[in-house]
Amino acid sequence: MENLNTEQSAFDPENFSIVPQRGFDELKVGEVFRAPSRTLTDAHASAFQTVSCDNHPIHYDKEYAERYGHEAPVVHGLQVLSFTAPGATLLPHYFGNVFISFLELSCSFLKEVHSGDTLYSSLTITDLEPKGNTGIVTTKVEVYNQKSELVLQGQHKYLLKR
Predict the structure, then answer these.
(1) This protein's superkingdom (predicted)?
(2) How far apart are CA 133 and CA 128, in angstroms?
(3) How far apart are CA 18 and CA 35, in angstroms?
(4) Contacts with 112 (C-beta within 8 Å, 6 or more apart), sequence order
(5) DSSP 3-state assignment of 91?
(6) In what helix (H) or strand (E) does residue 161 lie, and over which residues does it extend?
(7) How far is residue 6's CA from residue 112's CA, in Å, rounded to a whole number?
(8) d(CA 1, CA 51)
(9) Is the pLDDT assigned to residue 14 strictly greater than 90?
């Protein structure tokens, strides 16, 4: 019987990654990074309301929402935007230790989102701009609902070491 305790290699957390890390110059325009789908519940909306302190009745009062032409309370737009967080995908794991900062984001809210909607988000690399020993990665961000309707679109920019 083999002795499993002989010459064990030392564990090094620096070498533990979910996916192989890639440098700026190994990324490709057109690569898509998807997040797992998530179905929003009233509990999610309530938790976001607590964290954001946004207590406008459009987000939790059914009668108020209907009075102003909405079929149901509307999920906070910033909550929908949070579905584009890069950490919801594997993208920052590929960046690994070359990541410097999240530079900017923009978005347009295209359709209302309600409790019970399932959201599907993705980040697609649209531009790689080398800047000396750094580079800027631009991604298109999109969020679709279960009806295949685009509910949010925009972009992110990240600064990486080269």
Answers:
(1) Bacteria
(2) 13
(3) 15
(4) 70, 71, 74, 75, 151
(5) helix
(6) strand 150-161
(7) 60
(8) 57
(9) no
- Domain architecture of the chain: domains with CATH: 26-161 (3.10.129.10)
Confidence grade of residue 7 (pLDDT, cut at 50, 70, 90): low
List, for residues 107-147, the tens digit of each pLDDT value: 999 999 999 999 999 999 999 999 999 999 999 999 999 99
Which range, of 3-7, 44-48, 65-69, 127-131, averages the lowest pLDDT?
3-7
Number of residues that make up the chain: 162
Instruction: Give the CA distances from residue 48 to residues 59, 64, 81, 130, in Å, rounded to whole numbers and listed in that order.
Output: 10, 19, 12, 37
CA 125 to chain centre: 13
Label residue 19 exposed, middle or buried (CB < 10 Å: 0-12, 13-18, 19+): exposed
**Residue 122, token pair as written in the block:** 């993705």
Residue 40 is predicted with a pLDDT of 96
> Dihedral sign, CA of 74, 112, 107, 119?
positive
Rounded to the nearest 10°, the torsion over CA 11, 16, 20, 23 is -100
